TrEMBL record, chain A:
<dbReference type="InterPro" id="IPR029065">
    <property type="entry name" value="Enolase_C-like"/>
</dbReference>
<protein>
    <submittedName>
        <fullName>Dipeptide epimerase</fullName>
    </submittedName>
</protein>
<keyword id="KW-0479">Metal-binding</keyword>
<dbReference type="Pfam" id="PF02746">
    <property type="entry name" value="MR_MLE_N"/>
</dbReference>
<dbReference type="Pfam" id="PF13378">
    <property type="entry name" value="MR_MLE_C"/>
</dbReference>
<comment type="similarity">
    <text>Belongs to the mandelate racemase/muconate lactonizing enzyme family.</text>
</comment>
<feature type="domain" description="Mandelate racemase/muconate lactonizing enzyme C-terminal">
    <location>
        <begin position="143"/>
        <end position="243"/>
    </location>
</feature>
<keyword id="KW-0413">Isomerase</keyword>
<dbReference type="InterPro" id="IPR036849">
    <property type="entry name" value="Enolase-like_C_sf"/>
</dbReference>
From TrEMBL, chain B:
<comment type="similarity">
    <text>Belongs to the mandelate racemase/muconate lactonizing enzyme family.</text>
</comment>
<dbReference type="Pfam" id="PF02746">
    <property type="entry name" value="MR_MLE_N"/>
</dbReference>
<keyword id="KW-0479">Metal-binding</keyword>
<dbReference type="InterPro" id="IPR029065">
    <property type="entry name" value="Enolase_C-like"/>
</dbReference>
<dbReference type="InterPro" id="IPR034593">
    <property type="entry name" value="DgoD-like"/>
</dbReference>
<dbReference type="InterPro" id="IPR036849">
    <property type="entry name" value="Enolase-like_C_sf"/>
</dbReference>
<dbReference type="InterPro" id="IPR029017">
    <property type="entry name" value="Enolase-like_N"/>
</dbReference>
<dbReference type="InterPro" id="IPR013341">
    <property type="entry name" value="Mandelate_racemase_N_dom"/>
</dbReference>
<feature type="domain" description="Mandelate racemase/muconate lactonizing enzyme C-terminal">
    <location>
        <begin position="143"/>
        <end position="243"/>
    </location>
</feature>
Length: 373, 374
C-alpha cells in the first residue's frame, strides 16, 4: 500500500456561547481553527486525523499547520502508511522541532489508516485494550453560571472537572470556594490556571484552600505558573499536599525528563495534540510509568476526531488517572457525523470498528478559502 | 478469541564444542535449558515464545520458569490474547518482580498469536518496520581458536563481535591486542567482561589499550564491573574515550533510569529476555531515546525463537546501534525448523509472515515429540 496524497480542511473551532465570555486566563484568539487531515492511498483506504492548534499557547495556527503538511507531503507520498514509526522518524528528520500540530494530524491519520488496513481498532495497534471505559474530565466555562453548569454536568454523570482559572486571586478563590462548597468529595476539581498565577500568588491561594474547615482532598492544582518554570513548580509541590499537575510545558520528551528529574509534578498531562502525535504521547506514557509519576491522557482544543484518538490511547494505557475527551461537546459543530468516541455517564468509550472508528466526517457548510478535500 | 492453554517445553541450550572450553568469565552452568512457551487459543491459533535463562547471572532456571507458567496460567486462561498490555499488567500484578524469563516467554507468545490473528508480522504491532535489515553482533568463543573463528566470521560478513573477557588481566589484554591487530578498523569489537573486572583493573586495561599506536576507535567496553555499581561505571566512563556499554544490571525501568541519571553508559544493551518481554523492552527503548543514550536490541542465551522476537523489535526501532540475534548459531540444535530470523551477510532479516514468522519448530530427538504442541 502506498500513500498517494495528503489533503486537509481547516475547520473553525466554534465554542458555544458560554465559552465566548469565559474569564479563563488562557488566551483564546477570536477565531481558531483545527485542520482535518486525510491521507489517501493507492488501495482506496484512507485515514483521517486532526491537527488541533492552540495559538494562544504555542503560536501555531492552521496556516502554520497547513504549511507544515505541505512541507512533509513530498516525503510521505509513495511511502507505505503502515510504517508508522519510520514515517514519524521521517517527519522528525525534516523538522526536529516545530510543526507539532501537522505531525499530530498526520500521525493520527496514519494510525487510522493502518487500523483500517489491518481491520483493527487503533487501540489494538497500541498493545490492545486495557480498559472498557475511562473516566473523563470536562471543562465548564468560567463565568457567572459555572456552578449551575457543574450541577447539570454532574447530573449527566461527570465526576471530574477541569475548571479554568482567571488569574485573578480574588475571583479564583471565590470560584474555588463556591465549587468546593457545592460538590461532594467524590467529585474532583482540577484548577487549571494555564500559567495565570505567580509562584507567590499560587502559595497564597493554596494556603487559603488548605485552611478550609475540611482539607480539600478533591482538588488538583494544574499548571499554576509559567510553563517552563519547573524549578518553581517543584518548590510549590514541596509546599503543599494538594496534587500538582503539570501540563503546558510538556511538548517534548526532554521537557518531561526535566520535570521528573526535578520532582516537579505529582501528575503530568500527556496530550497527543501537544506533543506531536500518538506515538510520541505513548513514549511519554512509558516514561511516566517508568518514573512512577501519575498521568492523564488528555486533550487540548480537540474536536471529536482528535478526542477519539485520545480515547484510543487512553483505553490502551496501563493506568491513566483519567482522560480528557470532551472538548468536542463544548463546540457548536461536531465534525464527526457517525462513530467516534462516545461519552456515557462521564466515561469515554471507543468503538470497536477499524481505525479510529469514525464512520463519517462532515464539514461545516462554508469551507474556508484554501481548504481542499 | 480466548486463551485455552499455556504450555512449556524445556529444551537444552547446547553450545557447540568450542564454547565448552570457553574462558569467558561469565559463569555458564554445564547444563542450561530454555523453555519454549506455547499459547493455544479456542480459534486454533497458537503462539510461540521462548523463556531464555542465564542462571549464572540471574539465578533463574527452566524449572523455575515451568513453575511460573503454572502460577500464571489460571489468570491467563479464558482471557483475550489481543489484550497484550492488559495481560502483561496481570503478570506484573501477580509477580511485581521476579519470573522475568516466564514473563518474556509469555509476552513473546502473545505477540506471535496476535500477529497471526491479525495477519501481520510482530514488527507491525510495534509501529511497523523501520529497517529492512539490521547489523548483528556475534560472539566467538574465547579460546585459543578465537582469532581463526573471527576470520571465518568476517568472511561470512559479520562486522561486530561481542568478545567475552576472561576476567584475567593478562589474558584479556593479550586477546584484545591480538584482535585489534587482526581486524580492520571497520570491524567493531565489544569486549564483554560480564562483570569480570574490578574498577581499577578496568581502568588499567583501558589505559593500556588507549596507548596503542593507533587509538582503538573500533572498540566498546561492555559491562566491565559489577552489575549494580552504576557509580563506578560512571567513574570509568569519565576516564576514557572508549564507549562504555551497560548490560547485565538492566532488568527494570528503574535500573535504566539510574544509569541514565548517573550518566553511567554511552550505550545500553536492552534485552527482551532479560527485562520480561517485548513490551517492557520497547518501553526501555523509548526511555533511551528520550535520554539520547544509544542502545542495542540484544539477546542473551537465546535459541532462534527468542532471537526472532528480538529481530522484530530491532527492525521496528528507530535507531538501534545494532542488534544481537546470532546466539542460536552457536548452538548444536536449532529449535526453529523453518521460518524465523535469517542472518545474511552479518545482518538480521525477517520474513514478512504473520506473527514471529516461525513456521515450524523441532526438538532434539531423545524421546521428545517433534511438534511444538501439547
Amino acid at each position: 500500500m502506498k500513500i498517494t496524497d495528503i489533503t486537509y480542511v481547516p475547520v473553525v473551532v466554534g465554542y458555544k456561547p458560554e465559552y465566548q465570555h469565559d474569564l479563563r486566563f488562557y488566551p483564546k484568539p477570536p477565531a481558531q481553527s483545527n485542520v482535518v487531515v486525510t491521507i489517501h492511498t493507492d488501495e482506496g483506504v484512507f485515514g483521517i486525523g486532526e491537527a488541533p492548534n492552540t495559538p494562544g499557547l504555542y503560536g501555531e495556527n492552521e496556516n502554520h499547520t497547513i504549511a507544515g503538511i505541505e512541507y512533509f507531503k513530498p516525503y510521505l507520498i509513495g511511502r507505505d502508511p503502515v510504517e508508522l514509526t519510520a514515517l514519524n522518524a521521517e517527519m522528525d528528520r525534516l523538522s526536529p522541532i516545530g510543526n507539532h500540530a501537522a505531525k499530530v494530524g498526520i500521525d493520527m491519520a496514519l494510525h487510522d489508516l493502518a487500523g483500517k488496513a489491518l481491520g483493527v481498532p487503533v487501540y489494538q495497534l497500541l498493545g490492545g485494550r486495557v480498559h472498557d471505559k475511562v473516566v473523563t474530565h470536562i471543562s465548564p466555562a468560567t463565568y457567572e453560571e459555572t456552578s449551575a453548569q457543574v450541577s447539570k454536568l454532574m447530573a449527566q454523570g461527570y465526576r471530574i472537572f477541569k475548571q479554568k482559572m482567571s488569574g485573578n486571586t480574588e475571583y479564583d478563590l471565590r470560584l474555588v470556594h463556591a465549587l468546593l462548597d457545592q460538590v461532594p468529595l467524590d467529585v474532583t476539581i482540577s484548577l487549571d490556571v494555564n500559567q495565570g498565577w505567580s509562584t507567590t500568588q499560587t502559595l497564597r491561594i493554596l494556603g487559603e484552600l488548605e485552611r478550609r474547615p475540611q482539607f480539600p482532598t478533591n482538588i488538583i492544582i494544574e499548571q499554576p505558573t509559567h510553563a517552563a518554570d519547573f524549578a518553581g513548580q517543584a518548590y510549590i509541590r514541596r509546599h503543599t499536599q494538594i496534587p500538582l499537575l503539570l501540563d503546558d510545558g510538556i511538548r517534548t520528551a526532554d521537557d518531561l525528563r526535566k520535570i521528573f528529574d526535578l520532582g516537579a509534578a505529582d501528575i503530568v498531562s500527556l496530550k497527543m495534540s501537544r506533543v506531536g502525535g500518538i506515538q510520541k504521547c505513548r513514549q511519554m506514557i512509558h516514561m511516566a510509568e517508568a518514573a512512577n509519576v501519575s498521568y492523564i491522557v488528555d486533550e487540548i482544543n480537540d474536536m471529536r476526531i482528535a478526542n477519539t484518538a485520545v480515547a484510543h490511547l487512553a483505553v490502551a494505557s496501563r493506568r491513566p488517572l483519567y482522560t480528557g475527551v470532551t472538548c468536542h461537546t463544548l463546540l457548536e459543530f461536531d465534525i464527526v457525523g457517525r462513530g467516534g468516541v462516545q461519552l456515557v455517564d462521564g466515561c469515554a468509550i471507543v468503538p470497536d470498528g477499524p481505525g479510529l472508528g469514525i464512520e463519517e466526517v462532515r464539514y461545516p457548510d462554508a469551507v474556508p478559502a484554501g481548504g481542499s478535500r | 478469541m480466548k486463551i485455552i492453554g499455556i504450555t512449556g517445553k524445556v529444551v537444552e541450550v547446547a553450545y557447540k564444542p568450542e564454547y565448552k572450553q570457553d574462558r569467558r568469565f561469565y559463569p555458564k552452568p554445564s547444563e542450561q535449558a530454555n523453555v519454549i512457551v506455547e499459547i493455544a487459543t479456542d480459534e486454533g491459533l497458537v503462539g510461540w515464545g521462548e523463556a531464555a535463562h542465564s542462571p549464572g547471572i540471574y539465578g533463574e532456571n527452566a524449572a523455575q520458569t515451568m513453575a511460573a507458567l503454572d502460577y500464571f496460567r489460571p489468570f491467563l486462561v479464558g482471557r483475550d490474547p489481543l489484550q497484550i498490555t492488559a495481560l502483561n499488567m496481570e503478570l506484573d500484578r501477580m509477580s511485581p518482580i521476579g519470573n522475568v524469563a516466564a514473563k518474556a516467554g509469555i509476552d513473546v507468545a502473545l505477540h506471535d498469536v496476535v500477529g497471526k490473528a491479525l495477519g501481520v508480522p510482530v514488527y507491525q504491532l510495534l509501529g511497523g518496520r523501520v529497517h529492512e535489515r539490521l547489523i548483528t553482533h556475534i560472539s566467538p568463543a574465547t579460546y585459543e581458536g578465537t582469532v581463526a573463528q573471527i576470520e571465518r566470521l568476517v568472511g561470512q560478513g559479520y562486522r561486530i563481535f561481542k568478545q567475552k573477557g576472561s576476567g584475567d588481566t593478562e589474558y584479556d589484554l593479550a586477546l584484545i591486542h591480538s584482535l585489534l591487530d587482526q581486524v580492520s578498523p571497520d570491524v567493531t569489537i565489544s569486549i564483554d567482561v560480564n562483570q569480570g573486572w574490578s574498577t581499577l583493573q578496568a581502568l588499567r586495561i583501558i589505559e593500556e589499550i588507549e596507548r596503542r599506536p593507533t587509538f582503538p576507535t573500533n572498540l566498546i567496553i561492555e559491562q566491565p564491573t559489577r552489575a549494580a555499581d552504576f557509580k563506578g561505571q560512571a567513574y570509568i566512563r569519565e576516564r576514557t574515550q572508549i564507549p562504555l556499554m551497560a548490560d547485565d544490571a538492566i532488568r527494570t525501568v528503574d535500573d535504566l533510569e539510574k544509569i541514565i541519571e548517573l550518566g553511567a553508559a554511552d550505550i545500553v544493551s536492552l534485552k527482551i529476555s532479560r527485562v520480561g518481554g517485548i513490551q517492557k523492552c520497547q518501553q526501555m527503548i523509548h526511555m533511551a531515546e528520550a535520554a539520547n543514550v544509544s542502545y542495542i536490541v540484544d539477546e542473551i542465551n537465546e535459541m532462534r525463537v527468542a532471537n526472532t522476537a528480538v529481530a522484530h523489535l530491532a527492525l521496528a526501532s528507530r535507531k538501534p546501534l545494532y542488534t544481537g540475534t546470532a546466539c542460536w548459531t552457536s548452538l548444536e540444535w536449532d529449535v526453529v525448523k523453518s521460518g524465523g530470523v535469517q542472518l545474511v551477510d552479518g545482518h538480521a532479516t525477517l520474513p514478512d509472515a504473520p506473527g514471529l514468522g516461525i513456521e515450524a519448530l523441532q526438538f532434539p530427538a531423545e524421546g521428545q515429540e517433534s511438534d511444538a504442541t501439547r
